[in-house]
Design a protein that fits this description.
Layout: H1 22-44, H2 54-61, H3 67-87, H4 98-108, H5 111-124, E1 129-135, E2 141-147, E3 158-164, H6 171-174, H7 178-189, H8 192-197
Antiparallel strand pairs: 1-2, 1-3
Helix pairs in contact: 1-3, 2-3, 5-7
């Protein structure tokens, strides 16, 4: 069964007032995300991965040596990453649920310290990649960063929040100001109820 490009959970211009323009979503979702779907489907066609879930393919192909396996991983992982990314944002200002706020305070000392670490991870990721809030195997919450399409599934972690720091995610709206994009993401775009639901 071929994977499909999911529709955005909001209109292309719905995030514009909060810093992510219609043009960015048209390029990012309609072109970049769609390319991962198309290329991922082509890469798994006729292989043992063709009827597996996204999660099974990501875990099964991460760090495999062959070029074909790397091509499968890169596209399927980015397909999954973006599926999560759109759901993690909302055009409506989202109040952080108390259970998530408590977890962040318990693990980072304060919500502000979590935000500081998250932005630092994203800004400090050299080249393309992602920064994440994850629940680790020991139950603790951690901020991590990964290169290219690598995601927390590769390390047995549960993804709570992720921010795309590939240039196509922010360059139209923020040019080379990745730290400003990250701060704006946390302050104006995150759907905190979605994050809390992942705990």
């Amino acid at each position: 069964m071929a994977f499909e490009l999911p529709s955005l959970p909001y209109a292309h211009d719905a995030l514009a007032e909060n810093g992510m323009s219609k043009e960015t979503l048209e390029y990012h979702h309609d072109l970049h995300h769609n390319a991962y779907v198309t290329n991922g489907n082509a890469a798994i066609a006729g292989t043992d991965w063709e009827h597996k879930t996204l999660e099974e393919i990501i875990i099964g192909t991460y760090n495999q040596g062959s070029v074909s396996q790397n091509g499968i991983f890169n596209n399927i992982s980015q397909l999954w990453n973006h599926n999560q990314f759109w759901e993690m944002m909302s055009p409506n200002t989202s109040k952080m649920p108390s259970e998530l706020e408590s977890e962040l305070k318990n693990n980072f000392g304060s919500v502000d310290e979590f935000k500081t670490q998250f932005c630092a991870a994203g800004a400090g990721q050299f080249g393309s990649g992602w920064c994440w809030l994850v629940r680790d195997a020991d139950g603790s919450l951690k901020v991590t960063k990964t290169e290219n399409g690598v995601n927390p599934l590769c390390f047995g972690q549960k993804t709570l929040l992720g921010c795309d720091v590939w240039e196509h995610s922010y360059y139209i709206d923020f040019r080379n100001k990745r730290p400003v994009y990250l701060t704006n993401f946390l302050d104006k775009l995150v759907n905190w109820e979605n994050v809390a639901s992942r705990m």
